[in-house]
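Quick bug: Acetylglutamate kinase output formatted oddly.
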Amino acid sequence: MTDLQDTDPGEASARAVTLIESLPWLKRFREQIVVVKYGGNAMVSEELQDAFAADIAYLRYVGVKPVVVHGGGPQISSMLDRLEIPSEFKGGYRVTSTEAISVVRMVLTGQINPQLVSKINAHGPVATGLSGEDAGLFGGRRRGVVIEGVEHDLGRVGDVVEVDPQPVLDQLAAGRIPVVSSIAPDLDHPGHSLNVNADAAASALAVALGAAKLVVLTDVPGLYADWPNRDSLVSHLTSTDLRAMMPRLESGMIPKMSACLEAVEGGVETAAIIDGRVPHSVLVEIFTSKGIGTEVVLG
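Here's what came back:
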């Protein structure tokens, strides 16, 4: 217990004010499902990993039901390089060979997932690891990509076309935090796995769960209406506004904003992209009136 004689009264009062400011948001999100897509810089910095894990544990202990979906682009690239397996991108997607999909599975389900579960569980035994391949959680279909009017094959890359949320709901009912790796079984080729975009997988899962909010961590402060003009950061926009902006967006931002659009059009109340490079950005987004990053609502 803190010795009150060592606590500055002004500092203690300021802390209390901060806690009270979160009250409306605690009431709004208590017992609600919040899906958080974890990736980018937040995933490769040890300090940011620890801050993220603490945020997710905090949500659980104040009565929110967090669900984490993660990818692992930087770690997959690193492992492919180490194993001298060629890695190529087309239209923002990683071309995934039969050889590469084994590495993708190993990194996502065997390395990143248990590491994140362990970090969350440093705050109490609440997190559990799941793969999109577990218990029919995700079903995927292969996809290509069209570049300048020409269709290109991406190999073992797919979209999540089916979601059975029951495995996640079972974990939530048991008071656990599901941590889901973004890989899916290929519905058209039994026994095969697909590398699926984690932003899209998180969005599809949020819709299937009837989540109150989708939060996507990224490596920029939010959506810029006129990139690279840094004064054009958009803090709030409707799905109609976003759909009109989509053709003008930078290629790296398209999957993230598409995920937000699909989430709110699928019934999720709000979706936001936030800067994962800012420690505790998840808590700032959920528990303050200003939030952080760009929020999308239906309209």
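Actually, after a second look the formatting is fine. The chain has one domain: 29-297. Closing.
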